[in-house]
Amino acid sequence: MGKRNKQAAAKPAASPTTTLRHLWLAGLGLAAVARREALAGAGRAAGQVEALQRRVREAASDARGNVVDGIENVRGQVEPKVVQFSAEVEARLAPVLDKLGLKGQRKPRAQRKGRKPAAKSKAPAARRAPRKPAARRARKA
């Protein structure tokens, strides 16, 4: 008899019917799994957004660098030609300016400097008195 009791205790009887308690526990488990997956999905999405932002910043920085390099390259090619053209124009106009007597009046241009900083005012200007509102006209009834 001892053997039979051990076998019966080792094998619990399976409940063939689904009870409300089983449904409630299954629903709780489903809610817990759904919450965990939603939080993990949100974390993954945030990580992907940050990675995308980083890639966009890098691409914008690369594009800016390429544009700046291209502009400097074009500037290096164009600037000597502009100087040469300017010298040719001045050489051709020199005899005409001599005939007109305008050569001595022209001063050579100095190189452009950066903007001057704004002058600091020592004392604030006196404020004007506020304007008085216009007189109201009487309405005719």
Write the layout of secondary structure elements.
Layout: H1 2-10, H2 20-100
Describe the protein's architecture and organization.
The chain is mostly helical. The protein has a domain of 79 residues. The chain has two helices and no strands. The model has no long low-confidence stretch (mean pLDDT 82). This is Poly(Hydroxyalcanoate) granule associated protein (Phasin). It comes from Lysobacter enzymogenes.
What are the salient characteristics of this protein?
141 residues; 0% strand; Poly(Hydroxyalcanoate) granule associated protein (Phasin); mainly alpha; 2 helices
Main beta-sheet annotation: none
The SSE order reads HH
Shape: flat
Q: How many strands appear in the DSSP assignment? A: 0
Terminus-to-terminus distance: 119 Å
Q: Which segments are poorly predicted (pLDDT under 50) over 5 or more consecutive residues?
A: none
Organism: Lysobacter enzymogenes
Biased composition (Basic residues): 104-119, 128-141
Protein name: Poly(Hydroxyalcanoate) granule associated protein (Phasin)
Region (Disordered): 100-141
